[in-house]
């Protein structure tokens, strides 16, 4: 059953929760939301026997009101997403473990860095670009996406995200535009300005930009999928090296996705150790 919390700017954020025990909030990646993420749905069900698992739609997606006008200011967009998480953590009892996927893991890191009451972090493949095995993302990426959206060119904004930020081969984008999912992607395209604000310049190829995350002082588990491209695996491993209290696991799965069955025992063991140590 869907419930809502109200963020600091009055935005209503939809979520549902399952299970009992310490709060665990699942944080989706770019454009994804509860109804579009079978991986997070499976994790919510699989982890509910030891945690109260919250699954929410990031603003502008799912059961939340759509965003028609993209946010021009990156700092405002980033703070809005942090405020959304703060409202959810308050709803969850004042403290929560965050489990982030892709850019959702970067949002989770930023929440801990900002001093939100985060008890622990599980980070699946933060999409940092710090290796030379794929093109870097230009520093003007957010400005170009913002311009495309402001001018009503949602297909161009989506193409920039897919090809530049996500490293999808350009020849695949045409087929995606012909799919039934493309219309839904067009609807949530304005959220890309929020997602780009969360990512900041961390996809420009400069690993020194990640050093700020060394100040994150909560227990952290970073995860990469065995089937993912080397640049995605490198981002997760680099995060584990930076965060002082972090461990790293490579688990079975396809590109940028997890195989739930073998992942659940690893996640439950780590969560159990975290709870025992609190």
TrEMBL record:
Highest taxon above the source species: Bacteria
UniProt GO molecular function: hydrolase activity
Residue span(s) of domain AB hydrolase-1: 24-251
Protein keywords: Hydrolase
SUPFAM superfamilies, per the entry: alpha/beta-Hydrolases (SSF53474)
Signal peptide: none
Record-given protein name: Alpha/beta fold hydrolase
Organism: Tenggerimyces flavus
Species lineage: Bacteria, Bacillati, Actinomycetota, Actinomycetes, Propionibacteriales
């Amino acid at each position: 059953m869907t419930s809502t919390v109200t963020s600091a700017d009055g935005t209503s954020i939809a979520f549902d929760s399952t299970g009992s025990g310490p709060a665990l909030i699942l944080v989706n990646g770019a454009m994804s939301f509860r109804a579009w993420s079978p991986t997070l749905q499976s994790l919510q069900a699989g982890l509910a026997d030891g945690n109260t698992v919250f699954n929410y739609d990031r603003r502008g997606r799912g059961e939340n009101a759509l965003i028609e006008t993209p946010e021009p200011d990156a700092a405002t967009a980033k703070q809005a997403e942090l405020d959304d998480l703060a409202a959810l953590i308050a709803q969850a009892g004042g403290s929560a473990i965050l489990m982030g996927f892709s850019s959702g893991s970067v949002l989770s890191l930023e929440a801990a860095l900002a001093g939100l009451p985060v008890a622990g972090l599980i980070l699946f493949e933060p999409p940092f670009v710090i290796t030379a095995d794929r093109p870097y993302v230009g520093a003007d990426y957010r400005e170009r996406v913002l311009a495309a959206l402001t001018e009503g060119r949602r297909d161009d904004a989506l193409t920039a995200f897919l090809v530049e930020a996500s490293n999808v081969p350009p020849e695949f984008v045409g087929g995606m535009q012909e799919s039934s999912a493309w219309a839904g992607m067009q609807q949530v395209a304005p959220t890309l300005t929020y997602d780009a604000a969360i990512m900041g310049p961390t996809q420009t190829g400069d690993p020194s930009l990640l050093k700020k995350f060394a100040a994150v002082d909560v227990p952290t588990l970073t995860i990469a999928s065995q089937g993912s491209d080397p640049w995605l695996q490198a981002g997760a491993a680099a995060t584990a090296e930076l965060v002082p209290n972090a461990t790293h696991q490579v688990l079975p799965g396809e590109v940028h996705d997890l195989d739930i069955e073998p992942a659940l025992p690893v996640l439950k063991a780590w969560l159990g150790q975290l709870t025992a140590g609190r």
